[in-house]
Specification:
alpha+beta; 4-stranded antiparallel sheet
Length: 105
């Protein structure tokens, strides 16, 4: 009787570990195109407000973000921005911030 309980418990533990391993592997490798959407830079203007630069394929979208709205400000060519550096986009975002501060002030 004890051997049967031990075998059943071991089989149950194996099935639970197998389910957990499959869930972990699925979570690690999400279906779809890897790297399709990448946040390049984000400049906050206050609580729940800011400008985000998002790389989508070969374009960088500059988005105005608020808690109720999302607006496309500009579309940039990703080839014009050097790979691996967000400096150019961060500079453009900071210039947009200065323009916005000038309009608010």
């Amino acid at each position: 009787m004890t051997d049967l309980l031990l075998q059943t418990g071991a089989a149950l533990a194996f099935v639970i570990l197998l389910i957990a391993a499959v869930a972990w592997a699925y979570k690690k490798k999400k279906p779809g195109i890897p790297g399709l959407l990448q946040l390049v830079a984000y400049q906050p203007f206050g609580p729940r407000r800011g400008v985000a630069a998002v790389r989508v394929g070969r374009e960088v979208l500059v988005l105005g973000v608020t808690n109720t709205d999302l607006k496309l400000l500009r579309v940039l060519d990703a080839a014009a921005i050097e790979e691996g550096t967000a400096g150019a986009v961060a500079d453009r975002v900071s210039r947009l911030r200065k323009i916005k501060e000038g309009l608010d002030g």
